Amino acid sequence: MNKHLEPEFITLLDNNQNLIHKVCRLYTVDEASHKDLFQEISIQLWNAYPKFRGDAKFTTWAYRIALNTAISLYRKKKRSIDTTSIDFSIHKFEYTEYNEEEEEQLKAMYKALQELNDIEKALVFLYLEDKNYDEIAETLGISSINARVKMNRIKTKLKQLLNP
Length: 164
Fold this sequence. Notes:
Residues 108-158 form the RNA polymerase sigma factor 70 region 4 type domain. With 164 residues, this protein is mainly α.
């Protein structure tokens, strides 16, 4: 990894860490797993950063890597994640704790989201992040029409889960 990329990467990661926290919250159920997944996603982003060409926005690229990392790790039903140690402190990267109180009103939704499959979770996540269907399709590697159809089906499923 080129040393000149480190400050740029750390700044981008620091400015966009909330999107990683949201992915972690969606795919984990406890704080330890959340922190492990956060670290693993950060490492995957770091490893892939030299290949980031800027064709898409950094956030779209980061969402794709974060979601793919979370899905691949949790599809295996792995409860603990083997991670590579990286010392972000030498880069003056500050980990901001995920504030559970701010997300209190979303607990019912998160509980319902746990009932969805991994791809449905990713689609809902991007939708809630106000991504348009073209961005969702690009991030998930599906067509825009497919994203719309899936989202309509998920909305119906969530309504049934939240209002049985």
